[in-house]
């Protein structure tokens, strides 16, 4: 009997992989089959690969996943890839580099705090999940079954408010809490070591009007290429209404109305819920932002899940639009209350997300030096300098740790419960290596910086050089 079947498999595949590398023709990434992925220029057949993290790997079939692989497997070396069946080579030149001194030290120091295998959700994390899920379930029931939207609730000082208004605001907030605290960790594979728990909690995205699989396509691409104006779907998702990217003067994506975006961008974010629940991309699960940067979404894994995505969306629309109208009548009051629910969810979710990478002095062009010199940039450094962190542990319990965006982007497959503990170490290592770490003690400071940045990006003032000012 073989004492080490993993080693035996690795040795067998190592030999066949070497043969494949020596005899295979180099192809283009767009020629990859939906049962293949490429990592660092090598093509791997994943049709029969049993992935320890679950079958989510099949989601990425047909794509280069070099950056995604390295960012969610921080402990892995090239040796781990020897377990996979290599079938060829692909033309590949990366804008990013890994295993830099900064990356190696920050991983070494952080892993002294969070040991391998312990990076998943803590008992405190699951208590938080239980609280937010309970709140959501209660509010979902009340919102879908209430027949008293316009019944007045008496408040102190002789004031009153419709019951439906209270339900809408609290239900909208409870949905945002699911998005921030439950589905986010789960769809990063960070809630639990057990794939089925992550898979189950990940459907929280669908329960709040989104879609788990579209989220994976968009969000993991965002993480891989944060603030990359051509590859980060989040960086151009709001165009042409307003710009997150600070395009140079005269750029075709600049419009005259962007000069006022510092005033109106928050108002436009309140429509996030509407754009989410009526997004036609739910039909084929081809996320337009991910598709724009070249992500293929035609694997059997995705195709088989399209009908489930549609069913979940129809369930959401039934519970949160049809039922309230059926119970309270089709009138301005009912429609207004439904929209108020959506606005409440939108402003909390998107209002917090927008702080993460859009602030003064954030790196809006992390691969500029690559284009100028051809030398890849440190991926870990780019993640720090395109993100911000604000507040502390209390803010983390409300936002699902997303106030620790720097830590989250460095270690996206680590549960948010750990971020308050590793943040001081991350800051210390960044300071040692001269990496810019943006930290705001209070959320209002980050918010103020975001508003200023949005105004600057809209007007193009950052491109106006002032000689001797020290500003560039």
Question: What's the helix and strand layout?
Answer:
Elements: H1 5-23, E1 26-27, E2 36-39, E3 42-45, E4 63-64, H2 66-72, E5 85-90, E6 96-97, H3 101-113, H4 123-145, E7 152-154, E8 160-162, H5 163-187, H6 195-202, H7 204-207, H8 212-224, H9 233-236, H10 261-269, H11 272-277, H12 288-292, H13 300-303, H14 306-328, H15 332-353, H16 368-373, E9 377-378, H17 379-385, E10 388-390, H18 393-399, H19 405-410, H20 419-433, E11 438-440, H21 443-459
Parallel strand pairs: 1-5, 2-4, 6-9, 10-11
Antiparallel strand pairs: 2-3, 3-5, 7-8
Helix pairs in contact: 3-20, 4-5, 4-14, 5-6, 5-15, 10-21
What this model shows, in words?
The structure is a single chain. This protein is an alpha/beta fold. The chain is built from 21 helices and 11 strands. The protein has a 5-stranded mixed sheet with strand order 1-5-3-2-4. Strands 6-9 form a two-stranded parallel ribbon. A two-stranded antiparallel sheet has the order 7-8.
């Amino acid at each position: 009997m073989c004492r080490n079947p993993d080693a035996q498999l690795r040795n067998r595949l190592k030999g066949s992989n070497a043969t494949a590398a020596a005899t295979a023709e180099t192809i283009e990434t767009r020629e990859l089959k939906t049962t293949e992925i490429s990592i660092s220029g090598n093509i791997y057949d994943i049709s029969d690969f049993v992935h320890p993290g679950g079958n989510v790997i099949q989601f990425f079939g047909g794509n280069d996943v070099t950056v995604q692989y390295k960012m969610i497997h921080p402990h892995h070396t090239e040796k781990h890839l020897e377990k996979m069946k290599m079938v060829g080579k692909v033309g590949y030149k990366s804008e990013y580099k890994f295993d830099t001194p900064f990356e190696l030290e920050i991983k070494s120091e952080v892993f002294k705090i969070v040991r391998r295998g312990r990076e998943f959700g803590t008992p405190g994390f699951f208590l938080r999940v239980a609280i937010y899920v309970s709140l959501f379930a209660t509010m979902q029931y009340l919102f879908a079954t209430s027949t008293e939207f316009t019944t007045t609730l008496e408040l102190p000082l002789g004031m009153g408010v419709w019951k439906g208004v209270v339900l809408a605001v609290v239900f909208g907030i409870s949905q945002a809490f699911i998005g921030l605290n439950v589905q986010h960790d789960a769809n990063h594979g960070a809630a639990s070591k057990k794939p089925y728990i992550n898979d189950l909690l990940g459907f929280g995205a669908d329960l709040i009007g989104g879609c788990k699989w579209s989220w994976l396509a968009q969000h993991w691409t965002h993480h891989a290429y944060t603030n990359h104006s051509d590859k980060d779907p989040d960086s151009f998702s709001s165009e042409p209404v307003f710009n997150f990217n600070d395009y140079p003067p005269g750029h075709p994506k600049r419009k005259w109305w962007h000069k006022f975006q510092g005033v109106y961008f928050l108002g436009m974010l309140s429509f996030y819920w509407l754009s989410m629940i009526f997004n036609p991309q739910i039909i084929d699960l081809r996320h337009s932002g991910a598709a724009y940067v070249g992500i293929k979404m035609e694997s059997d894994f995705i195709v088989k899940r399209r009908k489930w995505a549609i069913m979940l969306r129809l369930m959401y629309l039934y519970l949160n639009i049809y039922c309230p109208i059926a119970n309270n009548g089709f009138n301005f009051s009912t429609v207004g209350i439904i929209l108020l629910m959506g606005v409440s969810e939108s402003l909390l979710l998107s209002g917090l997300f927008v702080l993460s990478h859009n602030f003064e002095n954030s790196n809006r062009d992390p691969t500029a030096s690559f284009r100028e010199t051809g030398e890849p940039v440190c991926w870990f450094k780019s993640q720090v300098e395109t993100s911000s962190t604000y507040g502390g542990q209390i803010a983390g319990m409300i936002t699902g740790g997303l106030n620790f965006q720097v830590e989250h982007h460095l270690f996206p497959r680590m549960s948010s419960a750990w971020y308050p503990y590793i943040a001081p170490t991350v800051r210390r290592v960044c300071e040692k290596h001269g990496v810019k770490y943006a930290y705001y003690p209070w959320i209002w400071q980050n918010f103020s910086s975001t508003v200023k940045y949005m105004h600057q990006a809209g007007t193009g003032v950052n491109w106006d050089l002032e000689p001797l000012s020290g500003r560039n």
